[in-house]
Structure formats: C-alpha cells, structure tokens
Amino acid sequence: MRPHAQTARILLALLPAIPTVLALVGTLVLFSLFLLVQGQPFLDAVGLIFQGAFGSSFAWQSTLLRASPLMLTALCVALPAQVGLIVIGGEGALALGGMCAAIVPEMLPASTPWLIATPLMALAGMLAGAVWIGAVGALRQWRGVNETISSLLMAYIAIALFKHLVEGPLRDPASLNKPSTLPVPPSMMIGPLPGLEVHWGLLWGVLACIGAWVFVKYSTKGFAMRVVGGSNRAARLVGLPVNLLALAACALGGAAAGLAGMFEVAAVQGSANASLLAGYGYAGILVAFAARQNPLAIIVCALMIGGIEASGSLLQRRLDLPDATTLVLQGLLFANLLAWEALGGRIAAWRVQLQAAALSDINLPMEQTHA
Amino acid sequence: MPDAHSPFVILLLSLFAGAIRVSTPYLFVSLGECLTEKGGRVNLGLEGILVSGAMSGYAASFLTGSPWAGVLAAGLVGLLLGCLHGLVCSLPRVSDIAFGIALMLLGTGLAFYLGKPFIEPQAPGLQSFDLGTWTSSPQLHNALHINPLFVIGVALAFVLQWGLRATRWGMTLRLVGDHAETARAMGYPLTRIRIIATAVGGFFAGIGGAYLSLVYPGSWNEGLSSGQGLMAVALVIFARWQPLRCLWAALLFGAAGALGPALQSIGVTSGYYLYNAAPYVLTLAIMIINCRPDRTLAGAPGELSLTR
User: Fold this and answer.
1) Choice between A343 and A295, residue whose per-residue pLDDT is larger
2) Contact B226 A156 (CB under 8 A)
3) Comparing A153 with A359, which gets the higher pLDDT?
4) Looking at the 3D structure of chain A, how many domains does it have?
5) Which residue of chain A has the CA closest to B112?
6) Residue A154 placed within a domain
7) Upstream peptide bond of B217 is cis (omega within 30 degrees of 0)
8) Interface contact B234-A332, CB threshold 8 A
9) Do B227 and A156 touch (CB under 8 A)?
10) A142 touches B at CB < 8 Å
11) Does any domain span residue B139?
C-alpha cells in the first residue's frame, strides 16, 4: 500500500501541470506539422529554437533581456485577472510609462545623483501606467465598459499619444532619423547586474513577481481580490469594497507595465522612441495566460516566451524562415494552452481519486487499531 | 451652392468619401460579429481573421489573377478560423474571450508568416464603379467611387436584419443566444448552431480583410490593419446588435477613420497621430456613454459573456 500512496502523492503534486505540459507537446507537434507541410526541416527548427533561447551564454543573455519586461507586462494581465478582469492593454501602459520616465531627467538638474533620479523615474513610469490601466478598471466598475476592449483601445490611444509627443513636442531636435526624446544622461542610466550583461530590470521583475505572489496568496487584500474574482456577487454580499479592489488590481498591474517601460528607457534604449513599442505588452498577455495568472509561474513562463522571441533571429539566419515564425509559434502555444483547459473537469475527478489513494496509508493504522 | 473649393466643403466631402471607402471592413466585420454574438458567443479573434483574410485574399488574387477569387479565398480562410474558434470554445471551460485573444495572435502570426512572399508583388485589385463622371468637383468624383464589396455589404446588412427578424433560422439563432436553456429544451442543437454562427461570422470578417488588401488601401503589408477587427466588436455594442445599425455605425467609424487623411488634404498636418486615433476615442466614448454598470444593455443577447 505504501508505495502506491506515495506515487499518488507525487502524481497529485504534478496534476496541475498536466494541461500546460500537454499544451506544450501539442504546440510542438502542430508547429512541426506546420513546418513539415512546407518542406522545412522541422527538427532543425525546433532544435534551433532551443539553441537560440538557451543554447549559449549569448542566447541566455538575449532571453533574459526579453524576459525582464515580459515579467512586468505579464503582471499587468495577471493582477487584474485576480479580480476576474481580462486586461490586454499593457503595451499602452508600457509606452506611456517609458515616456513619462524619459521626461523626468529633463526636469532634474544634471548633477542629480542616480540614487534620487532613478527612483523618481520609476515612480513616474509606474504612476503613468497605474493611471492608464486604473482608468480601464474604473470604467469597468463604474460604467460597465468591457475591460478587454477598452484596455486595447486605451493602448491604441496611448500609442498614438506616445508617437505624437515623441515626434512632436518632446522630440530631441538632434534625433534626426529616429525621433526620440532627449537622451537620459549617462549618470542616470541603469547598469548591468554584477557579473551579467543583463540590466537590473531583471532582478526587479523577479522581485515584483515574487512580491505579487506573496500579496495575492498571503495578504488579506490579495485574498479579498481573489474572492472578487471568484464571485463578484459573493464578494458584494460579504461587504467587500469590490470596485476599489478591482481598481487597485488594475492600477497595480498598470504600474508594473509602466515600470517595464521605465527600464526599457533607462537601461536599454536610453530615450523614449518607437523601439519601445516592441510588443512586450502583447507578449505579456501570453505569458500571463501560460502562467495561469500565477505571479510566481510568470517568472518561468517569461523565460520561455522570452526564449522563443530571442530565437527568432537565429531561425531567420540559419533556415531563412520569416521573422513571424516565432509569432506563429506563440499563437499556437496560446491556442493550445486555452484548448487544453478543457481537461480541467477530468483533472478535478482524478484529483479526488488520487487524494483518496494518497490518504490510504494514513487510514490503514487506524483501521488496524479499530480491528 | 456653396463654394466647392472652400476647405470646409473639401473636408466634408473627404469625410463623406472616407466614410464610404473606410467603412467597408468595419461593416463586414461588425456584421460577422453581430451574427456570432446573436448566438451568444464573442469572437475577439476577428482582428486576426481580418488580417488573415487580407493576406489570403491578396495572395489568391495574385496567384489566380482574379480579385473575386481573392475575395472568396479570404472568406474561406475566415470561415476556417471562425470554425476553429467555434469548435474550441465548445469544449468545456474554454473562455471565448480568451480564445479570441489567442486567435488574434495566431491569425496575425500566420498571415505575417505566409504573407511574406506577397509583400512585394502587385496583385490585381477590385475595381470600383465610377458613379461620379457627371460632376466637375474632383472631391465629389472621388467620393462616388463605389466598390462592389460596399454594395454587397449594405445589401448584407438589410438581408441579415430581415433574416434575424423574420426567418426560422434567425429566430432559432436569437433564441440560442438569448436563452440557451429554452433552446435546449426545445431540442435545438445549441453547440452546432453556435459553431455555424461563428464560422459564418468569420467568413464575413475574412471578406472585410480582402477589402483592405484588394481595394483600400489596396496592398498587403504587415501594418495593414490598425485594430479595425477589434473596433468592430465595440461597434456591435454601439449598434445594439442590429445589423442595420451596424451599417450606420460603420459609416460613422469610417468617417472618423478618414479624419486624419482628410485634414491632411486641406493642409492640417500637425497632430497627425492624434487625428488618426479618432476612431479609438470615438469607440471608447461611445462605450462609456452606452454602457451601464447595473444592467445589461437593451438588445443584448442574454447568453453573452461580454455584457455581463
């Protein structure tokens, strides 16, 4: 009986991962088929994706560089998801966050130490993101406007605003080919992590994910948010401030995406320009869904999606595949992740069986004493 | 007769021309979404279907030399992707909104991937009827280039309006979307009807995409769609799920979309990006005005997850 119960316990722990693993397998199979139909060497392609994502220190570096903003933009989806809202406008919060962060150095004296300037830039970015996505939450709660559509519209508006300001009033006259804001002074730029070639944004991204996980899982407010997400009506009946909780979740998510924009400006681009609109906000949606809106799992999933994106250039160079190849792979992954959710009911049934099996060796001595 | 060369008249005429020229994709996508939503499902993936339709329409027109073959191909690709949405969302525990987002990504990715070889070549476009030969004003003449797809779209709006109201098919679809339990009790195949509605909706959205690549702007590139597919979803809410109102709303959105280029044509060049954001602002404003937190909208299908 004992080994059986033990395997049951192991299986029980692995159970939640089953849909994700099946989705990954399904994605790889469909992606291989997609390439096979066109006569492309699919085994090479899949191999190159792993190589381009995690195959060398250079690949890791490029993966980590992409993963750090993804962690933050994924939080922009995962935090509102705790109160049951699907927000997909992280790209706009990232753009505005980056832009507002880029304005801060212009208003500070050039001799300001980074210890003051960097937090101020971060604050400006987070505030901009929080206001933008917070507005989406407010429109949802107080006006009943569907948050999925409004957040994407707000993202489009934010991007238009970004382009207007960066190419107009905020433009550095010296930026001729690529309209940009005034460059961030070198003394206020964010450097690499010690021993790595990846900037500090990675550490802050990981910390933000861990912080969000602790908040959602262990704090009272986080619990209240999950109650709202589970049942809006129940939350209202027990007197929770549903509207404020939803607003807070959206604002926090927006702040995370805004912070991602600030790091892109202060650690990568050096100013706010069109390179900021690299699609991190949209890829963050996929990361959050792959992580099942669990902030801790976002860290792993951001590495995975960051790796897929990083491998694009290798696929392009070696196999002459279009750069949209990684987009197809991401689309397939997203569709698979959702479709395999359908197993959820079956898994709940298996869990009950396994729980019974896992408890069988605890019940055994009791039965013997009774006998 | 006001002076036909005053900037104001030119602006109005440009907006009018734009309303007709830009509105067709909105019209097709919103009619498709209207049909889908009448069955009780939301397909946010129509944006991805629009882009796929634009790509496949352009490719088919280039390969066969016939733009109408392109329109058909675009519709069939839309049908296929709509079918995928319908089928997957029939599985238990799959959210139609979330899968729509996935389809947006997948459709765009596939279109960009497969459409790469078609960015360069020139495919035959769909010719418009020239109804303005009698006028001396070039702006009015320009406005009276009416595309057959626009005419088909307008006819479709009338047909759908009538069909949803007066045919057995339309009433069944509305019943399925309004009250699933009743429909089930009456023995209608709920899932099948919803899949068909989503697939046909995808067909329409695909044709909307073909308009983008074959008529206006009339070429295939990766920046072709600027969220028209998604705005059409909001447009359906604004139109309160009535196909005829979709037509008026699409014309309004078309005019808003033409605001940027129209202002440019009379010499207003600053704030180009802001004027181009007019449709998004309009959509958002309309949603804010129309939605209420405490009750669902009048005319909304009862089973719709979007308005809950």
Assistant:
1) A295
2) yes
3) A153
4) 1
5) A324
6) yes
7) yes
8) no
9) yes
10) yes
11) no
Residues 162-201 of B with CB under 8 A from A: none
**Inter-chain residue contact A160 with B276, CB threshold 8 Å:** yes
Structure tokens at A202: 């990675």
**Chain B interface includes A278 (CB < 8 A):** no
Domain extent, residue A202, equals: 69-308
Higher pLDDT, B232 or A229: A229
Instruction: Closest CB to A157: pick one of B237, B280, B306.
Output: B280
Query: A154 contacts in B (CB within 8 Å)?
Result: 284
Which pLDDT value is given to residue B189? 94
Which residues does chain B have within 8 Å of residue A337's beta carbon, measured at their own beta carbons?
102
Range name among A214-223, A296-305, B76-85, B250-259 with the lowest pLDDT average = B250-259
B306 found inside a domain: no
- Establish if A45 belongs to a structural domain: no
- Does some domain include residue B303? no
How many domains are there within chain B? 1
Domain contains B136:
no
Residues 210-239 (B) with a CB less than 8 A from some CB of A: 226-227, 230-231, 233-234, 237
Residue A1: predicted pLDDT: 46
Q: Looking at residues A54-67, what average pLDDT do you find?
A: 94
How many interface pairs between A and B have CB atoms less than 8 angstroms apart?
136
Q: Is residue A25, in this structure, part of any structural domain at all?
A: no
What is the amino acid identity at position A144? G
**pLDDT value of residue B11:** 85
**Residue B13's CATH number:** 1.10.3470
Comparing A356 with B168, which gets the higher pLDDT?
A: B168
A191–chain B nearest CA distance, Å? 34
Percent of chain A with pLDDT over 70: 96
List of chain B residues whose C-beta atoms are within 8 Å of the C-beta of residue A331: 102-103, 105-110
Tens-place pLDDT, residues B7-56:
888 888 888 888 888 899 999 999 999 999 999 999 999 999 999 999 99
CB contact under 8 A, B227 and A342: no
Q: Which of B48, B40, B201, B264 is nearest to A324 (CA)?
A: B48
How does the average pLDDT of chain A come out, rounded? 91
Whether A317 is in a domain gets the answer no
ipTM of the complex: 0.91
Q: Which of A13-17, A362-366, B260-264 has the lowest mean pLDDT?
A: A362-366
**pLDDT confidence bin for A365, thresholds 50/70/90:** low
